Amino acid sequence: MQFSIWHWAIVLLLIGVPVFFAVQSARKPSQSPADLVGFGGWLMLLAIGQALAPLRTLAGLGNSAEGFQQLMTLPNGPLAVYGEVALNLAFLALQLVVLVSMLRRSHRFPQLFLVQWFAIPAAFILDTAWISTVLAVPVNQVLAGDALATPLASFVFTGIWAAYVYRSVRVSNTFTRTSAPRQVASAS
Question: Which of 78, 118, 146, 181 is the most exposed place for a label (fewest CB within 10 A)?
Answer without folding.
Answer: 146
